[in-house]
């Protein structure tokens, strides 16, 4: 079973300053779940209307596909380094 990332680390190094943020993504989940539950009736209606065109299935299963994509971000590390600046984005 894949688990979503729980922490987002953002570090920006400049020649004059250094910023390091640890953002707990677990605090975002209740907001995302509430928004999903609010939009779920609209998603189901739109999927039912567009089912004959072939778009309904993609709309209906788009949420789980986005969740899988989000879970696959765990372990992603983006490190951009230049002579005077450095940016690190890391999903733990």
Instruction: Enumerate the strands of the largest sheet in spatial order, edge to edge or round the barrel.
Output: 2-1-4-3
Portion in strands: 25-35%
The rough form would be described as elongated
Helix content: 40-55%
Q: Structurally, how many domains make up the residues?
A: 1
In whole angstroms, the N-to-C terminal distance is: 16 Å
Mean pLDDT: 92
Order of helices and strands: EEHHHEE
Protein structure class = alpha+beta
Total of DSSP H or I helical runs spanning 4+ residues: 3
CA-based gyration radius: 18 Å
Oligomer: single chain
The biggest beta sheet is recorded as: 4 strands, antiparallel
Give a count of the beta strands, DSSP E runs of length 2 or more: 4
Query: Which ranges are low-confidence, i.e. pLDDT below 50, for 5 or more consecutive residues?
Result: none
Task: Please describe the topology of this protein.
Layout: E1 7-13, E2 18-24, H1 29-49, H2 55-60, H3 62-71, E3 77-81, E4 86-91
Description:
Helices cover 40% and strands 27% of the residues. It is an alpha+beta fold. It has one domain (7-91). A four-stranded antiparallel sheet has the order 2-1-4-3, with no helix packed on it. Strand 3 (77-81) and strand 4 form a beta hairpin. The model has no long low-confidence stretch (mean pLDDT 92).
